[in-house]
Design goal:
Order of helices and strands: HEEHHEEEEEEHHEHE
Largest sheet: 6 strands, mixed
Helix content: 25-40%
Number of strands: 10
Structural class: alpha+beta
Distance between the termini: 11 Å
Mean pLDDT: 93
Low-confidence stretches: none
Number of domains: 2
Length: 298
């Protein structure tokens, strides 16, 4: 499975497919009509990392893991999103929002607070594009999980079956919902939905624990919970503070990269996941506690 990133002029990015599979092509064919409709209005989105990055991991905090739960059952877990095309959609519409604020003579204390008034052309375009990117992200994760299972089946000395419900949840997204008697748009940044009974994933850092949870439907949080531990320091700060020896010690017992290029993902750069879970005990119920044994980073 392609993962990582290589910026080469004219060459293939190692994080993309050289030749896409029939499964990837089928999913892309279903995404393509709406993508073309979006690009007809916003041409800069066409030449982005899209088709050949569908079903790939990416970089940063994206990962593929093999975990063991409290009963020593094996879990496959992965984290990725809408890849380069989703990122480009975000940056493009942020710039459009800033221009719209000037056009509508709306004064803001900071341009990063720019927004689209509902009912305007760019508001509708943005909601459509974000919805499409969320669909891309869901299909991206499904394709990767299929490949993970197939790859492990190919080398496993014993056949196995997946007998637990798969959990596929969005993070960093927006959708229409009904709260406190009003129809609203809820943006979850670093958060996932936790409706009553809804299953979710709260991953810890590499070398830590992760959790499969069930939502409690706490309205005061707009039926949400955290997406993970969250960083305590920037990537740059982590690289300055820690070294490879620290990375090796912090990920003891986990088969993973332990080189200078992943120090920014060292567990100490993240909050204590147990403290995070304790702080949101009224939002979710812990169903399974997972411990990483293999972690592949982009």
């Amino acid at each position: 499975m392609p993962h990582g990133l290589s910026r080469t002029r004219g060459g293939r990015d190692k994080g993309s497919w050289e030749n896409t599979s029939a499964n990837v092509d089928k999913q892309w064919a279903e995404l393509l009509p709406e993508f073309e409709a979006i690009c007809a209005k916003h041409k800069c989105l066409k030449n982005t990392n899209n088709h050949k990055h569908l079903g790939t991991l990416g970089t940063g905090n994206h990962f593929i893991e093999v975990c063991l739960d409290e009963s020593q059952n094996v879990w496959f877990m992965l984290h990725s999103g809408s890849r380069g095309v989703g990122n480009r959609i975000g940056t493009h519409f942020i710039e459009l929002a800033k221009k719209d604020m000037e056009k509508f003579y709306i004064q803001l204390p900071d341009s990063d607070l720019s927004y689209f008034p509902e009912g305007t052309e760019h508001f509708n375009d943005y909601v459509q594009a974000v919805s499409w990117a969320q669909d891309f992200a869901r299909r991206n994760r499904e394709l990767m999980m299929q490949n993970v299972v197939a790859a492990i089946r190919a080398i496993s000395p014993k056949p196995f079956t997946a007998d637990v419900e798969a959990v596929n949840c969005h993070h960093n997204y927006v959708q229409r919902e009904h709260h406190f008697g009003h129809n609203v748009l809820v943006t979850r940044k670093g958060a996932v939905a936790a409706w009553p009974g809804q299953m979710g994933i709260i991953p810890g850092s590499m070398g830590a624990k992760s959790f499969i949870v069930r939502g409690k439907g706490q309205e005061e949080s707009f039926c949400s919970c955290s997406h993970g531990a969250g960083r305590t320091m920037s990537r740059t700060a982590a690289k300055k503070r820690f070294n490879v020896a620290d990375q090796i010690a912090a990920t003891q017992g986990v088969e993973c990269r332990k080189d200078a290029n992943v120090i920014d993902e060292i567990p100490m750069a993240y909050k204590d996941i147990d403290a995070v879970m304790a702080a949101q005990a009224d939002l979710v119920e812990i169903v399974h506690t997972l411990k990483q044994v293999v972690c592949v980073k982009g």
